[in-house]
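seq as requested:
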Amino acid sequence: MTTLFTFYVLIWPALTLGVLTLICRAVIRDRRKAQEENRELV
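struct tokens:
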């Protein structure tokens, strides 16, 4: 049971890092596309 609880607690930082990476990559991609089209990101 302790191993399961440890895995459960440690998986959240990994999931959070994955989501943060995904969001950052999408913003960077959108920013580059906006610069190519000579428009603002927002």
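Residues 2-36 form the longest helix (35 residues).
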